[in-house]
Amino acid sequence: MLTPSTKMEAHSPYTELLSALKRLDRFGSIGALVGWDEQVNLPPKSSGLRADQRAVFTEIFHREASCPKLGELISEVEALGDSLTPEQTAVVRDARKDYDRLTKIPAEFAARKARAQSLSFKAWMQARENNDFNTFQPHLEEQLQFAKEEAAILEADNAYNYWVDQFDPGMDCDTIERLFNALQPELQEIVKTILDSPDQPDTSMFKGFPVDAQDAFLREVVEAMGFDFGRGRLDTAVHPFCGGHGQDTRMTTRYHEDNPLDSLSSSMHETGHALYEQGLPDEFAGSALGTAVGMAVHESQSRMWENQVGRSREFWQFWEPKYRKAFPKQLEGVSSDTLYRAINKVGLTPIRVDADEVTYNLHIMLRFELEKRLFEGTVTTKDLPDAWNEASTRILGYAPKNNTEGCLQDVHWSEGMFGYFPSYCLGNIVGAQLWYTIREQMPDLDSQIAAGEYRPLLDWLRQNVHSKGRRLYTLAFTKEATGKDLSTDHLVRYLKERYLPLYTSR
User: Residue 425 in contact with residue 361, Cβ under 8 Å?
Assistant: First the structure.
């Protein structure tokens, strides 16, 4: 566990800075709960009020986070120079970066943007339900203009790089392109091999799985993974997410009687995020020592639990009897091998969150390409449906039947979250590299998972990921944790080892 240096006195400028940052963290957590409530509980006719509430809150938070006293305190700690430890230097680094950003962004702009995001989210929900892109397009255009305007206010050389850095500090478009360009042909070759196989899994058993039984089963899994329900919740929403705070973690999932794996996999995914948040050192909340590295490492945690653990033979060796007990009629006559292959089915689907872990990364590459083009101006928001369909056909090999299963499927752009999507694929790359490191250091990992014992894995992640906070950014963090530079080789190896035997060795 990181602790403040003994070089600092109990009431030093550094400890005052930690206290100020933690206060902002507590304040910001109120806004996080408001956002969670908007997607889970808000009455349909109350969206206008919530937009106003978010605007007012954002304006107040912006004023608090950019007050001159905080800036003076940051400068005072910076002046300590070489007397700061590396951990303290990281705290000051991020505090300065965040403060400078907020002092340049007018509070009025932040409030106006927050209100527009709330209205845009509501418009997206209705447009998605009605397959009506035209009603959402003006909101999407507004969000894109907000994103470009904010980057301009911050005098960013590249607007899209600015937003990538907001979700993954230190990351840039060139690095992502290099990794994605190396990965894409490898993925497409794996997908082709699988789809060309005559021996495809049977998934016909996934029909009529009662929602209440799904809910009971996945809650048992989530708790076994280590999620603390004493400081967290699991609810339902249109789009699964994890929000709130490490001390009050709010997760959501969604249920379909004919797609029971969706609720389970999304719950395990969000639990991976939640375990990261619940494992961050709360004494340093709001500072680099109590904040996640970035969304790529965050996604490495969620994707690892969802896939490397949740789709493994060892996981199902333990949970299959309980699953059969929960759904005896639905799984009657289904062999263990048939069930396992169905769980790991690879195929083309238009929906990212329903995609298997082989094709999933191609979904992200599609979005990354379109985001770049939107910021470059080579694609307009009005052109987006056609551009999406063309890119989907070219990259994924699937042409969406409508906009609901195309450019309307994701919530992110409705809330101005440009630059977030690459984190999902980056997370898979980081996660695979971490996974092989963990396996080298924990030779009993498979037998532990087969016994339903996840504490050793969680303890490793707590020690090597969660407790580290954001001392280092993604590339340096990965090098420290694994001893190697970030590479796509580990993800390609993992996918070949997990999936090709299911399709080529029978």
Answer: yes
Above 60 in pLDDT, residue 472?
Answer: yes
Pairwise pLDDT comparison (377 vs 504), residue with the higher score: 377
| Both structure tokens of 36 | 């969670």
266-276 average pLDDT score: 97
Structural contact between residues 478 and 433, judged by C-beta atoms closer than 8 angstroms:
yes
Tokens read off for 400: 């969406």
pLDDT for res 155: 96
**Alpha-carbon gap, residue 377 to 396, rounded angstroms:** 23
Q: What is the pLDDT of residue 506?
A: 54
Which 3-state string (H, E, C) describes 258-311?
Answer: CCHHHHHHHHHHHHHHHHHHHHCCHHHCCCHHHCCCCHHHHHHHHHHHHHHHCC
**Exposed (0-12), middle (13-18) or buried (19+): which is 353, by Cβ within 10 Å?**
middle
**In percent, how much of the chain has pLDDT > 90?**
94
Q: What is the pLDDT of residues 5-44, one digit of tens each?
A: 444 555 799 999 999 999 999 999 999 999 899 989 999 8
CA neighbours closer than 13 Å in the CB half-sphere of residue 213:
17
CA dihedral 477, 483, 486, 488 (to 10 degrees): -140
363: its two tokens: 């979904």
Judge if pTM exceeds 0.90: yes
Q: If you search the block for the tokens 């992502």, which residue do you land on?
A: 176
Residues recognised as catalytic: 270
Helix (H, G, I), strand (E, B) or coil at 243: strand
CB burial string 254-277: b at 16+ within 10 A, e below: bbeeebbbbbbbbbbbbbbbbbbb
Query: What would the pLDDT profile of 201-255 be if each residue is shown by its tens digit?
Result: 999 999 999 999 999 999 999 999 999 999 999 999 887 899 999 999 999 999 9
In single-letter form, the type of residue at position 49 comes to L
Position 458, amino acid: L
CA 164, 166, 167 angle in degrees (round to 5)? 70
* DSSP H stretches of helix in 7-158: 13-40, 47-65, 68-78, 86-104, 107-130, 133-153
Residue with tokens 């690879």: 346
Give the count of beta carbons closer than 10 Å to the beta carbon of residue 102.
20
Q: What is the pLDDT of residue 418?
A: 98
Please give the structure tokens belonging to residue 214: 């799904």
β-strands 232-236, 248-253: how paired?
Answer: parallel
C-alpha distances (whole Å) from 361 to each of 190, 436, 441 are 12, 19, 27
Q: No. of H helices and E strands in the chain? A: 20, 3
CA gap 56, 112 in Å, rounded: 9
Cα 346 to Cα 282, 337, 342, distances in angstroms: 40, 15, 9
